[in-house]
Design a protein that fits this description.
By secondary structure, the protein is mostly helical. The chain has twelve helices and no strands. Helix 3 runs antiparallel to helix 9 and helix 10 crosses helix 12.
């Protein structure tokens, strides 16, 4: 898209600070059912699901955890079996060697430092093996204590298309978004973008004619 066109489009839709609340409100109406796609019942199951979701789909993770969570209910359960057995049980999620190592390391730390419970503090979550900022953000948000905004491929793409950031790096994108998005919306904002990206603002063929943000809130609209 020519730079001049983008500049003109951004003038047409107005400053991002003025657009962010209407964007959130319209997406909340359009995707009232937007929520995390992972299936879990406890904080431990949430943590494991998010750790397993790296480089695979939520549907695939749910397929694996449907049986996994019947077998492994406590941190001790993940350490009670040989690592090869745990690897077989999570094999379908991919990268099973690294994920099994991270899971066992995390379970050991939960038992050693947190009485077997998933910690509430964001900095404590980051101490867990295999838990980076994105995972900690998801876990905190789903527990009602969002400390940032989750940035995945959908959030990255739509934030750029909406003119909310020019960054490519997820950490820098998150930094831009937390300055714009009201804190009370930090938890639901990524879900709204994710579901909008799956249903309407598709990567290669966005359905701009069906988009509730077109034409007045999105500088990239084709209508």
């Amino acid at each position: 898209m020519p730079r001049s066109y983008v500049a003109e489009a951004r003038k047409r839709v107005g400053p991002k600070k003025q657009r962010i609340r209407p964007i959130v409100e319209r997406l909340a109406v359009e995707h009232a059912d937007a929520k995390i796609a992972l299936t879990f019942r406890t904080p431990l199951e949430l943590l494991v699901s998010v750790m397993l979701s790296a480089q695979t789909t939520d549907v695939n993770v749910n397929r694996v955890t449907a049986t996994l969570f019947e077998k492994y209910r406590t941190p001790e359960d993940y350490l009670a079996v040989p690592v090869e057995e745990l690897e077989r049980d999570i094999f379908a999620t991919g990268f099973y060697h690294q994920k099994a190592k991270a899971l066992r390391g995390t379970m050991a730390m939960l038992l050693e430092q947190f009485d077997g419970e998933v910690p509430e503090a964001f900095d404590d979550l980051l101490k867990l093996p295999g838990v980076a900022r994105k995972t900690a953000n998801v876990v905190s948000a789903e527990r009602g204590n969002a400390q940032g905004i989750v940035v995945d491929t959908h959030v990255r793409r739509l934030s750029q298309r909406l003119g909310l950031t020019k960054q490519e790096d997820p950490v820098k994108i998150e930094r831009d978004l937390v300055r714009l998005v009201p804190r009370e919306d930090w938890a639901r904002f990524p879900h709204l973008l994710i579901w909008h990206g799956r249903r309407i603002c598709i990567a290669r063929a966005p359905k701009c004619e069906e988009c509730p943000l077109a034409p007045d809130l999105c500088p990239s609209t084709r209508v």
